[in-house]
Amino acid sequence: MALRGLVERLSSREPSVRLHAVEKLERLGGREAAGALVLVLGDRDPGVRNRAAEALATVGAEAVDPLHEYLRNWDEPLYPELSRLLGRLRSPRSIELLAGHVADRDPETRAATAEALGRIGSPEALPALLELLRDLVARVRSAAAGALGTIGDSRAVEPLLDELADDDPAMRIAACQALGAIGDARSTVPLTRLAGEDPNPDVRTAAEAAVRRVSTRDTGPLLRQLASERAAERIAAMNALLDRGRAAVMPLRDLIRHQNPMVRAAAVEILGAIGDPAAIDSLAVAGRDLDDRVALGAAGALGRIRHPRCSDLLAELLEHDNPSVAGAAANGLERLGEDALDALVRLLGSQRAETRIRVTDVLGRLRHKGSCRRLVAGLRDPTPWVRVVSCQALGEIGEGQAVPELIRALGDRDTLVRAMAAEALGKLADYRATMPLIERLKDGNDIVRVNALRALGTIGNPVVRPYLEAELDSPNPELQVAAIEGLVSLRAADLLPRLSRLARPWPMSRAPRAARDAARRAVDRLGAIALETGEKPPAGG
Prior knowledge:
It is a single chain. By secondary structure, the chain is mostly helical. The protein is about 70% helix and about 0% strand. Helix 22 (about 340-345) runs antiparallel to helix 23. It is rod-shaped, with a radius of gyration of 41 Å. About 45% of the residues are buried.
């Protein structure tokens, strides 16, 4: 059918006739067909005008001039298909028209306007899109964010960062995607925080992807440098990545599965130094790495991140077969302090004696009085080393409720347990331990006797003075030193003459050097005590 006949049909009262004419004009194509199609963009029937917009988009570039001539005096609101048409034609001439309709009443039209401006892709659309980014309707704001990401102008970064706090998850996702597309380093830290803390998993995923896009541009060469065979280059790359801080977290996380264990270990070390909770999941994977260097680094890294999840992960590593990894986990749990208590207490019931030993040691280092009851139970553990470490831990905690069980441990069949029980009782300085410790002075093992003697001196019950004096002539220098130190604790200034003789240089004093040195220190301290109290020091022999 000739063009003239189609144009006449566009004036028909029947929508179906007009619609059929639009379809024929679409197939005809060209400037003349476009000139006819624009005439029905204002058709009273939505189906006809929307189909005309689609037809013009099919015609393409030849429709631009007729369309803009027709819209030059357009004074009606736009409608979604018309805005989309302007976007599909991608003519910068459409920006001014679209920008003039950012306040149109229909939110779907405003959203389509934002999308159209994004498809045109010119920075000239920035002011209009920033206005749409402040729209009251989330769908419009999301479309504006997407358009800003497509344009990629860094001037949109700060407004988009503000949208990361939007109440609507879809808007936060759109802002993340836009920031990732723009790739400005300013967005790295806020996106990283969102990736680790947002309550919505889809938002966290979008934020993580965005951070990866942004940071990889900046850190890509440095990440490759971590695999260098030259140590100087690796160290330089590590320092540079550390300077990037949270901006480097996401790309470093990707390296946790790198085929080179040296690269994995370096990535773990840097993540630990940065200390961002967003790295926890990746560090958990590294803790199970078959290469102990990587697992060791993961244990150290988790111990530097103050987050509740780290305690459970470190507790798992406390059971690692490699003592170095387990030791690093223990140090990390100690740094976490009270946050680690629940995880540690659960492990006290482990079937592995090595684990119970490590847990008990950490609890002792934490000096948490609330764990005393559980540690007292460790004094009856079938494994001697668990009982030994339980004694040490209870001594560090210093809680009086442990005294009766520690006294019972003085009779343990294991020598080291008895020695550590004596040492712990000395730290608790409880008079109740006096007589049991005096009994241990008859023990067949020198270590037990030495620790018992030291404990008695520390407790400071004057009744033990004869026992301490009796050991001044002991052939065992450790017993002599313990006796001397105990007498100083008892402020036995009247023994200054005897101690002075013991402190004389060899051969005037035949005592071992350790005993002479201890006696010399005792003379100084007891002399000072005598002067403080106004007593006249006894004359030396």
